[in-house]
Structure of Helix-turn-helix transcriptional regulator:
Amino acid sequence: MTHVVDTTQELAAFLRTRRERLDPRELGLPSRRQARRTPGLRREEVAELAGVSTDYIVRLEQGRGLRPSADVVEALARALRLAPVERAYLFNLAQQRPRNADEPATTAAPALARLVADLSPLPAMLMNHRFDILAWNHEMTRLLLDFDTLPPSRRNAMWLCLIHPEIRDFYVDRERVLREGIAHLRTAWAAHPEDRALTDLIAEFITRDEEFARLWAERDIKVNGRGHKVMRHPDVGEIAVQFEVLAPLQDPDQRMVIFRAADDESQSALDRLCAR
């Protein structure tokens, strides 16, 4: 038998269980003379921590059909000391979209950096939602360029494609690659409206590059998880690759990009390139 999730009742039950598991002493709350009849925090204590009324907490926990705002959900998540996955679950139950308050990663987590290295001999790199390149392996540097030679502010895949003299004409089908990248960037921009650095980066691109400004104005939206590119490498000629984009579960705003040769000739070219 299939049961449809009643989000109102699940929200009520989830709030109750998370309230009851908290130890008041760990939160620095004053002790009370009257013994607690139930474990965890009282509703009025959660209300005070979240900045809402006790009656509001009562109605939420009784499943009376309230739909808390994103601000209230965030306040409840902080008051109940929810882990990131629990916070996301609470937002889903409340049918609200969380604000991405955390700054995006500008360095790769050690485990992800090791994974990028371990993917050799496949060219691989890790990017954040801005297209900043956070980690890469030897094969990717041979295929594209040595990212260590760039200042960190220019280790950005879109900047390289638009402005870097070696990469600007690197792709055989440049307009398609650029169009898809801009559509992906617009999707990330809408998902992170508070990311001032991303907004500033897009403004720079619009100002400096007419092609970017034209394609950005078309407002195409796309999340490109896999595809095909043909690269015009100065040392070994054309290399056709299939790429796959994976998102780590614990870092969903980061992207692992993995290239594979699309045919035998391209594989031979990659082998010669990486053996140098």
The mean pLDDT is 89. Residues 7 and 92 are 9 Å apart (CA to CA).
